[in-house]
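We treat protein structure as text, and this decision shapes the records that our systems exchange. We quote a single record here, exactly as it is kept in our systems:
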Amino acid sequence: MHSLARRRYHRAAPVILVALLLALVTGVAWAISQATSADAAVTTTADDVTEGQKLFAANCASCHGLDATGTEGVAPSLVGVGAAAVDFQVGTGRMPMQASGPQAPAKRTQFSQDEINQLAAFVASLGAGPAIPTAEQVDPALGDAANGMQLFRTNCAMCHGSVGGGGALTQGKYAPNLWETTPTHIYEAMLTGPQSMPVFNDANITSEGKRDIIAYLEAQDAGSPGGFRLGTIGPVAEGLWGWLIALGLIIASTVWIGARSS
């Protein structure tokens, strides 16, 4: 019986079994890491960079230069701005600009998303910079709107208003309305700091915090629990309407009483 057991269970079997388990765990971990890396950014190829360079030369080089190092007094260097900056500026139609002004307004984009990705791939190849965020990073369903409200009102409300309705700045500039901005573009704006906006890197607002802000802004489109929005610019508008209605009623009452007494 003992000899039969020795033939069935070799002394090297435990070592082989452990090795097989380690190989299995390593394989699973590698597969997960590959899936995470694939989701971390838009996949680009050498062909994307080449096509992006052609698009850049035809549409952007007149201001930014063929090597994207910028031109003095006209346009800044794009070396190191990253794919996120390109996706935001081109994806919102701000670039290419139609005319010089204190601020590039959002407008209908001139490129397809594939072309935007190719432009972003070319600019990203010039120097390291922020990447386009993943779908998970910008998913408002995964965010905490209550925490987002606190972060937004601490860091953003002084320009964009308490609920993201926008507001005027100095020298003809303005903070745009955020209600129609996509979650990806909101995240990219915080990450890259376009125009007058400061940069909020992960040391200022974490990736989870940015997602919470997106969740808060998405909640503003769910309706106004207080009734009419009145422009959603805060207590000034509400107070003005209150005074107009109250004063109107007082004047109307005075006229009616005067007419009756005469």
